[in-house]
Write a structure and sequence with these properties.
503 residues, FAD/NAD(P)-binding domain, 17 helices, 18 strands, 17% strand, binds flavin-adenine dinucleotide
């Protein structure tokens, strides 16, 4: 009997939905199986959303899936308040910074524009399958060639500058160009957020460029912000799958990937139900997919060793604070709904917070990114440098300690906020791992760093979406080009499966 489905997607994270929609729109009969009772993965649970600031969806993907861009998105610079140690916050939108002296604002604008051009050149690779380290085919080499050409078009001076800085650290670059302070803190947070790196770590200029490329596909700091709540994006992606004939089942955790004659043959659910399909794309993290769902019996020893040793210990916790009134901003005004707030007063402060995390401790002053939602009166905070493998474990006491230190840092930026809090919740990296099938609870399902990028992502031998068992693909943030709500990994993986014949 032939299988009822052409492809099974494990996980309805936004990448799983993008992959499903891409396959379904090409006529494939797809079934998406989601363990949770809500689609959208880390973006998806309105009660406690892991990813509160989805502004990186690639416009190329929105266009390919014919999402209604006018309804969904507004391309605009994201309004950011960045707090120093004292005084009013800086207001930053793309390359425009107000609240600093003119010389610093000009130096920042020039640096932002230059990095933006370089990021755009590198960004040519985001929607490409990285070429193989062995024999690459022509179309894959063409993607690389496009990036090389864009780098060449930067001109000799800027290309040389890019080659000089690309593997260096954000600390040196930003100190040289704009000096330390809340402006450098903001960029250094972008360079390190979600990863186990401080601004002094080598490779943090590359991660900054990556963020700029993926967060600002239009260049000039413009970002695609969903109109209304992030749920609009999840609903649009789920509707797109269904409109193309795909099915989505929630509350359906996959327990095993089935293999027959060295090929993926379908899945078995935790309920015991078996569903067959010649293609299986997994939105779960690489470790979860390969070690837990597929099983090491189907893999060679060296591959398993690399998978197990891939860096994927998360560093970010999410906290929600329900507040009785809109938070007041230090030195005047109220925090606006949708405004991004950053408390990373300097690179030194970020590095100090990282130092504690390196030794598996909580920092006294975590670096923070937050957004206030006026409709729900909720401040959603991502607290950076809260290690997955915290010494002593993620006990209730540890979470209470983190909540208190985050609130103390917020109180300096938003005076009086503590007295308006009516409820709070903490989700540690360990909770994120348990809740979303992301090993280590990592932001990108695996560290974004030089040895886990491009043709080495998620690890050497497992890149380019195709796994050693034919018909099995990785389509989540662990695959190239990594995480954030961009949809790129899901889109690229589905296109790789289609190119391979894709049933
Ligand atoms: C604390 C934190 C804050 C973040 N904030 C932001 C932000 O503000 N903006 C931003 O752009 N990015 C943010 N991110 C990153 C972003 O959330 C992720 O990179 C992104 O969600 C990855 O998308 P995905 O679709 O690949 O995977 P996920 O969103 O992790 O989805 C994977 C899905 O697979 C399902 N699944 C796993 N195993 C199984 C199984 N066995 N059976 C069935 N289903 C399964 C999971 O339940 C989940 O729904 C944040 C990350 C963290 C950790």
């Amino acid at each position: 009997m032939s299988p009822r489905y052409d492809a099974i997607l494990i996980g309805a994270g936004h990448n799983g939905l993008v992959a499903a929609a891409t396959l379904a729109r090409k006529g494939r009969k797809v079934l998406v199986l989601e363990a949770r009772d809500h689609p959208g993965g880390m973006l998806g649970d309105p009660a406690f959303r892991v990813a509160p600031l989805p502004y990186a969806l690639r416009p190329e993907i929105a266009k390919a899936l014919q999402l209604d861009q006018t309804m969904l998105y507004k391309a605009k610079p994201l309004d950011v308040l960045s707090f120093g140690a004292d005084g009013p916050p800086l207001r930053v939108a793309g390359g425009l910074a107000t609240g600093v002296d003119i010389a610093t604002a000009e130096a920042y604008a020039a640096l932002y524009a230059r990095l933006g051009r370089q990021a755009k050149a590198l960004g040519a690779m985001l929607l490409e399958t990285p070429p193989s380290l062995g024999k690459a085919n022509l179309s894959e080499m063409a993607g690389f060639a496009r990036m090389a050409l864009k780098m060449r078009l930067l001109g000799k001076t800027e290309m040389r500058d890019l080659l000089r800085i690309i593997l260096s650290n954000a600390w040196d670059l930003l100190n040289d160009e704009i000096g330390d302070g809340p402006l450098a803190g903001l960029l250094a947070l972008d360079a390190t957020l979600g990863g186990a790196m401080g601004p002094r770590s080598p490779g943090t200029v590359l991660t900054l460029l990556y963020r700029m490329a993926s967060h600002s596909p239009h260049g000039h700091g413009l970002r695609l912000m969903p109109q209304g709540s992030p749920d609009a994006l999840v609903t649009a992606l789920a509707d797109c799958v269904k409109a193309a004939g795909g099915e989505i089942r929630t509350g359906a955790p996959v327990e095993r990937i089935l293999v027959e004659g060295d090929r993926a043959a379908g899945v078995r659910l935790a309920s015991g139900e078996e569903i067959t399909a010649p293609l299986v794309l997994s939105n779960a993290s690489p470790k979860t997919t390969l070690i837990t769902l597929l099983g090491v019996a189907h893999l060679d020893g060296e591959f398993v060793r690399r998978c197990r040793s891939m860096a994927s210990k998360g560093m970010v916790s999410r906290l929600d604070f329900d507040v009785a009134e809109p938070p007041a901003v230090r030195c005047g005004g109220a925090l606006l709904s949708g405004q991004r707030l950053v408390v990373a007063p300097s690179m030194q402060a970020i590095e100090t917070a990282f130092n504690a995390a390196k030794y598996r401790n909580l920092p006294d002053r975590p670096a923070l990114e937050a957004v206030y939602d006026g409709a729900t009166r909720r401040l959603s905070v991502s607290a950076q440098f809260t290690p997955y493998d915290l010494a002593g474990g993620w006990t209730d006491e540890a979470k209470a300690k983190l909540s208190a230190s985050v609130l103390a840092v917020l109180e300096e930026a938003l005076p009086g906020i503590a007295s308006t809090v009516t409820g709070s919740r903490v989700m540690s990296p360990a909770d994120i791992e348990a809740g979303y099938g992301a090993a280590g609870g990592h932001w990108h399902h695996g560290e974004l760093r030089v040895d886990q990028l491009l043709m080495l992502r998620p690890f050497d031998g497992a890149a380019r979406y195709r796994m050693p068992v034919a018909g099995l693909y990785l389509c989540g943030a662990g695959a190239h080009p990594g995480g954030d709500i961009s949809g790129a990994a899901g889109f690229n993986a589905a296109r790789a499966a289609l190119r391979d014949g894709g049933h």
